[in-house]
Amino acid sequence: MKKNLPACLTAVGFFVLWQVVADCIGAAYILPGPKEILIRLWELREPLFLVHLPATMKVTFLGLAISVVLGLGLAIAMDQCPPLERALYPLIVASQTIPTTALAPLFILWFGYGMGSKVLVTILMTFFPISITVFDGLKGTKREMEELLMTYGAGRWEIFWKCKAPAALPSFFSAMKMAIPLSVIGAAIAEWLGAQEGLGYFSKRMMTQLDGAGVFAPIVLLSVVAMAVVAVLNAVERRLIPWRKEL
Question: Above 50 in pLDDT, residue 247?
């Protein structure tokens, strides 16, 4: 509690200031206060929780799962094959210079308003941090540990599973903590640009009706869900790699 108290006080102060500024402006369609957003969230709970939240979460977790598989596979392949690293690493880094918001409309144009285009946008947002962070974690393994296993006759894959993989676990969880919010953002951007359901689509629809609190309500819901998933991931991390406290 002592460790989290400063963050809690800062958050409370921010929301109080936000409410005061919103009350002074007096135009909820431009800047609704936190109180108005929570009230609107409760009023819209049925369409948000029963229709649009499941649609967004389906896109988010599907895109994130594909990114994890592809990102881990590419990180391991580059670690085990230096020529592949030299060929692909610069391209992966260069691919992140392309704005996602510029490619998202093209995906919708090519693949339509279905789930495929939104999943592709989510993958594009999350693939880079997973692959690069895990790869850096694999490369960060202490050379002395690898040489010690080699003196005992361990092969390349034995060194990977017994030394490199455990050492890269902290990097993997760090990558996931970055990828989860990015996957939510990617899904929301794709839904905002073109969809028939989802929290991004719902927020855009509320904007056309000049419902400021309705625009913020799905955004707040997305933030809360992302924070909850990250909290669960933190608990799993503490259980799987308790030695990280010693690093």
Answer: no
